[in-house]
Structure formats: structure tokens, C-alpha cells
Design goal:
The protein is of the alpha+beta class and 124 residues long. Helix content is 44%, strand content 21%. The chain has 2 domains: 64 residues, Winged helix-like DNA-binding domain superfamily/Winged helix DNA-binding domain (Arc Repressor Mutant, subunit A, Orthogonal Bundle); 49 residues, no CATH class. The protein contains 5 helices and 5 strands, in the order H-H-H-E-E-E-H-E-E-H. The longest helix has 17 residues. The N and C termini lie far apart (38 Å).
Length: 124
Amino acid sequence: MITKNRRLAAIMELVNTHAPNSQGKLLKLLHDRGFAITQTTLSRDIKQLKISKIPDDKGNYVYMNSHQDMKDSNRFFVKDKAGYSSGRGFISIDFSNQLCVIKTRTGYANGIASDINQRGSSII
């Protein structure tokens, strides 16, 4: 069990410091540290640790600790593509436990709120 606890701690450290974008990269980082595990075991560990793949500030999806206390770790940004963020009016979402703050361009809040009410969580 000590080995599993060390492995889980190493996974958390690697996710927090390297923000890998795939299980393959995370698995390689673990192998580099001497952990001989399979991708299946890594998947189970990721699920147990409640690590999620979320977009970073550049729009790339990376593994992050969902309970990380880093500044802006719970912030989601729209990737800055011409027409996407400006066309929809959505800028960012900040979460604090169960509270969500959505930042929009001026004049877009009512439309985005209406979309959320109509579609629920399927749009985010």
C-alpha cells in the first residue's frame, strides 16, 4: 500500500507541476520516476484522485487536480479564435465550490443566461 500511496502522490505532483495533456505523457513521466505501471492502473488512479482534463488559458486540454488551490486553477477561458469569443460574448467562467461566475462581453449576459436556462449544463 505504501507503493500505491507514493504513486498517487507522484501523480498529483506531476499533474500540478507539468499539466500533461495525455495519459501517455503522464505515464512516461511516471516511468521516468521509476514507477512501472500500466495505462489501466493510471486510469484508475486518475479516477480515484478526481483528476480532470480541462482547458487551460491557451485552450489546450490538460490534466489538472480538481481540488487544486492554485490561483485561476478553476478558470475556464474561451480559446481566442476570431469570431468565437466575440461572436458568443463569453469570456471566462470562475468556480468556487458550487458558485459560478461567468464573465461576458457587454450586452451578452442575458442571452448567455437564457442559453444556460434552456440547455442546462450541456453547453458548458
